[in-house]
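Hey,

The postdoc asked me to send both predictions to you directly instead of through the lab channel. I've kept everything plain text so nothing gets mangled by the mail client. Protein one:
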Amino acid sequence: MIKGHKIEKKIDLDYFLELINNIKEENIITTKHSFFRLKESQRKIYSEQIIKDYILGGKPILIGIQFNGNYSVFYSHKGLFLKLILDIKTQNINIVTFYIVDKLPKV
């Protein structure tokens, strides 16, 4: 794994929620790259709206900031974990990528 993609330090849930508190749903941006790690069948299940719902209403179980400045955010989901790589700005969130993993990283 490239060092920039590794988690540098763990982030407190309250800090993360405060960081995204004022960001509106329409300012959460996805691209085709956001979903490139998913299988075609998974793309039908995990839509843009579901990802936005996790960001705005879910409770992450692990949040970390990567060496490259992006946030790794993990949500528990059906015995697995949804991993979102987010580029969080003052007014918007860019979903860099999203995928499903079977374990949490060691931080």
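Protein two:
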Amino acid sequence: MPRTYESLTHSLLNSFGDRKKPGRLSIFVDVEEERIYAVPRETEHIDYAKKLNVDYDKLIPVHIDTENYDGLERVVGVVTGVSGLEISGRVRHLASDLEKAHELAWDFIKKGEISVGEVEEDRINYKYAKK
């Protein structure tokens, strides 16, 4: 059974980071249960979602981007609401769930060990919101 995480740690970033691009950690936020799952590097969102016992429309993808500044990792981006689950799987989310997931992701980051740097991207992608 996949495990949940309470905060962004160096260990989590070392284990799951660099997913699809250097410094990226992809997570799923279960907005109903307020749980966070880390998506493994070599696994597609849509495949990982199948392992979770969660309604897909309540499972929101979030990408956390980090960069190394003088030997220290810093969060520089948070993008919520888009992955293969939405693109290929045609899953749609309520706008309010996207917003809640984005907020929970920021709480997850702020509770963690990795500082926030100069944020280059902080957005919610509403393209896959339910109409």
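Summary for protein two, as requested: The mean pLDDT is 95.

Thanks,
C.
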